[in-house]
Amino acid sequence: xxxxxxxxxxxxxxxxxxxxxxxxxxxxxxxxxxxxxxxxxxxxxxxxxxxxxxxxxxxxxxxxxxxxxxxxxxxxxxxxxxxxxxxxxxxxxxxxxxxxxxxxxxxxxxxxxxxxxxxxxxxxxxxxxxxxxxxxxxxxxxxxxxxxxxxxxxxxxxxxxxxxxxxxxxxxxxxxxxxxxxxxxxxxxxxxxxxxxxxxxxxxxxxxxxxxxxxxxxxxxxxxxxxxxxxxxxxxxxxxxxxxxxxxxxxxxxxxxxxxxxxxxxxxxxxxxxxxxxxxxxxxxx
Amino acid sequence: xxxxxxxxxxxxxxxxxxxxxxxxxxxxxxxxxxxxxxxxxxxxxxxxxxxxxxxxxxxxxxxxxxxxxxxxxxxxxxxxxxxxxxxxxxxxxxxxxxxxxxxxxxxxxxxxxxxxxxxxxxxxxxxxxxxxxxxxxxxxxxxxxxxxxxxxxxxxxxxxxxxxxxxxxxxxxxxxxxxxxxxxxxxxxxxxxxxxxxxxxxxxxxxxxxxxxxxxxxxxxxxxxxxxxxxxxxxxxxxxxxxxxxxxxxxxxxxxxxxxxxxxxxxxxxxxxxxxxxx
Lengths: 286, 279
Fold this sequence. Notes:
The structure holds two protein chains of two kinds.
Chain A lengths: L2 H29 L3 H6 L11 H5 L8 E3 L2 E3 L4 H33 L4 H10 L9 H10 L6 H26 L3 H8 L4 H12 L1 H17 L2 H6 L8 H7 L7 H33 L4
Antiparallel strand pairs in A: 1-2
Chain B lengths: L1 H22 L17 H8 L1 H33 L5 H13 L2 H12 L8 H15 L3 H29 L2 H10 L3 H23 L1 H5 L2 H7 L9 H11 L3 H9 L2 H15 L3 H4 L1
């Protein structure tokens, strides 16, 4: 490789990184500003960083307080964080628990018409849930799940399921049958063979399906703010979504950013597994 | 398979059925909750509405523009990340972040960048940019661009990682043969890499569907909740939640079905060919 080409590649890599990271950097800079600097400072860096906006989130007092002329809304932020974690964790569990048997059935056992079942399930991915909110609300009411985390968990799970089933079943379909057969010969029951051999083998694909779920759940705040109205049951997204003037408050910016950090870390840790899992599922064609 | 089916039927099929039935009634909050069967009246109103056709056009343009941009960007980034280099691991993480970082946060970031709150030091500057764009390209153009930009930024990241996985799944021998058989990198890209990537690209397009047709949240936030340019999805939401005209909203939403079905048909042929053909 010539020197020019090497430098071109470095330049492109740098450009890709800057392009990807700039909005995140930008919003972090804003969240560290004092109200004064927000008005008079530079948008690109922060001269006197303060964690005020972040610490404000954790004041347990429920009453709004005034700082200067600015009314700072008080929010039960710890509660929201906890709720978000519950909803995210439960959505993950439900998605994977429903996706694995379905994918195994479609990819391995191949019931009659499995191809159409698989396509049909995958096609549900394009159904925009945000448009279905009125009938969805009816279902939620009928099940007595209004203001319950479970409603959100079930809806999120159906949003991520099609993709999870698709990649898992693609993977199971192309796994050599000898793997299970040798386990059966060794005296394992089909269930044990599945749990001890097939599941661990598909670890990366499970990571991919899981991360996709995390990304899907993390992206939503519309559904969350429709289905959770009780302040103490809301997730971070729902809570900040219904806060008045939420978008223009530094506190809100700090809040969402803070909630994002664990998710971003989680994704960073599993990023390699995600690509490996996708690759594993794609190896024999999509 | 049962649990997945129950979930899908309960949370999707039933609401969809309900929505279809709703679209044949005159249910709205103004009517006091009475529902009367009105047949195809809602659809007739819809088809006669100039706004509907404008929304259709905008939706299709939005989908085509963002998808093309996402594919181009995604392919470029994936090819870049596939080449060995020292910084690759770091840049890979950076490219992954726009998708991994919750959309609710990054949409706020874009909102602050493109439509900054009035208090900030740079709001005057962006107000000027917005005005200039709107004058040159017509009202609402800036809002359209900012929504499209956000969609491309976040979706492009997903596409890039997805296509990178696709590139990894292609046997390296194929690229080695290609190196022997072709003369220029451009030729190789056109004759070998892109055709091999096609099924994955189709899959990526499929996955960016929902965001294009019902990217409510982002459109909502980046335009401050106003219907500046109607996408079918956002307008339906506005009709339903904003105006309480539930039946009309249902008809609007369901008008997407033929479009979606046609696109699904094409995409399935590309990325899920019949077994016989592949073997």
